[in-house]
Amino acid sequence: MLGPVILAASRSDKMRRFVSAAPGTKQVVARFIAGETVEQVIPIVKETVAKGLEVTLDVVGEDITTREQAYAARDAYMELIEYLEDLGLGTKAEMSVKLSMFGQALEGGHELALANIRPVVEAAASIGTTVTLDAEDHTTLDSMFAIHEELRKDYPQTGCVIQAYLFRTEDDARRLAAAGSRVRIVKGAYKEPATVAYQDKAEIDKAYVRILKILMEGEGYPMIGSHDPRLIAVTQELARRAGRKLDEYEFQMLYGIRSDEHVRLAAEGHRMRVYTAYGTDWYGYFMRRLAEKPANLLFFVRSMITKG
Question: 184 catalytic, yes or no?
């Protein structure tokens, strides 16, 4: 019941100010956000890779209102790519982007987002890595998938994300599970109406398994975004049935959540990628992390009380 309330709060400027000023916020945010600058996050990337893990990097901040902010987002990713190239980390670190941050919601936003993301994808390819387009709320998905399809004409390794709680996703998965595709499946972390998305957790889990089966039986490369032990076990079984080798799919988990499991899966020979977010505009990302798991919210509240 708390999840939808927290997701609604993620769009509230009043709540943004309150949470940002709360005494315990900085401590809890540091659990999920690796730093505010690229200089701060690079050592964490190096440490993660040294453990036998891989990373996907997300510069947080999708709520933009001007073209100048969209250009700044593009430039932030270009700067990140320069750092990865200098350190020789391109093959171990990819990037995740939200097209809203590249101007998708602005006037002429589809064309603007495509124009802004293309040089980032091109630069990523030049250092041996790639970009995955994150899924946002359902109203943005047709644009996201169209941009994904356009980018893949020149950069077929470009990935995308699908969300299990949406009714449309099984059809999207069938279309995307083709040779050469890279598809991350997640449960979904936006407040969506009952007309387009499952609301019950059990139904979402069932949909996740159905979609995962489609991806595993397809010809693409599935990326399993989940911390749920049951879904991890299901993934391993479906991969076995599909005859997939350990390097023919990967697990992805969030920085700061179940870190021991990251290392365990990698030690078993699985590809394990840590979704690592950084940046100053952390509020929306942070609130979705709280909404996904009640334990995260309890941790935040205890920290506020302790520090207050």
Answer: yes
